[in-house]
Amino acid sequence: MISISHKAKQFLVLIIKLLIVGGAFYFIYDQLAHNDKLDWEKFIVLFQKNQSVSGICFILLLSVLNRYFEILKWQNLAQHIHKISLAESTKQVLAALTAGLFTPNGVGEYAGKALFFSKSDAKKVVFLNLICNGIQMVLTILFGIFGLLYFNSLFNVITPRTVLILFGILVALFILLFSIKKLTIKGYSIEKLIHKINEIPKTIHQRNILLGICRYLVFSHQYYFLFLAFDVNLPYLILIATISSVYFLASSLPTFQFLDFAVKGSVAVYFFGILGVNEWIVIFISTLMWFLNVVLPVIIGSYYVLNFKTKENA
Questions:
Q1: Which of 73, 119, 150, 270 counts the highest number of beta carbons within 10 A?
Q2: pLDDT for 223-247, tens place per residue?
Q3: Domain annotation covers residue 11
Q4: SS3 256
């Protein structure tokens, strides 16, 4: 094997750090500067009309809470390996978010968190991160299905027959998965996965679910309050049902973190278009959600990436 000197390894790590951070900032700038659907003049006019220091602080607080609940979730799950402080959990979550910015569905986030632990714990870290993101996805699906059913009952986007067919397919998939749970592929099976999940204490799972619900309620209501700020006055249940539907369908599509707002924005334009909301308002709110909940944490996470030290140098 070719051995790499200590200085060469340090230089390589530095190059990777700079590429991650530089790439993150480039993609953020590119999406904000070259999106021809963003009408900044309309935004400035509306912002000046409705500007409120308390309102801005409230929206920012929701962004902080959104990421705070995610940090608490990871701190809670990581204790299955060893206890970490809130500051350490913050560092790991934000650095991993930055590292996963360019990867499909943020899969780079898994490797990002694993770097903070010893190599022997790498598989456990990936598994725990899967649990962390998995519960958020399950909640998004559950709330999204209820939201879609309510939205569909009002606007008949799809026929009741189609709803029953889709529900039947979903039930059939669950039955199929559990009927072949002993089927092993490359040493992995659903049965083994369930067994590994059960190895984690119930208190950790319960706290994970509770924090996941809190996080879902925070970012869905942040979306809701932004619509109110943009003078979209629709009944609460209709807005929340539409938001949950958008998050559910957008989360089902494979995408990159830096394109997250574009995917959610395109889905949101369709649903909110049915409600008669202007396209530019929907796109702006989707962009703001992306900026507040991805861009700002990535900027902070870039600091942790640049200051990251490998286990050999720590």
A1: 73
A2: 999 999 888 889 999 999 999 988 8
A3: no
A4: strand
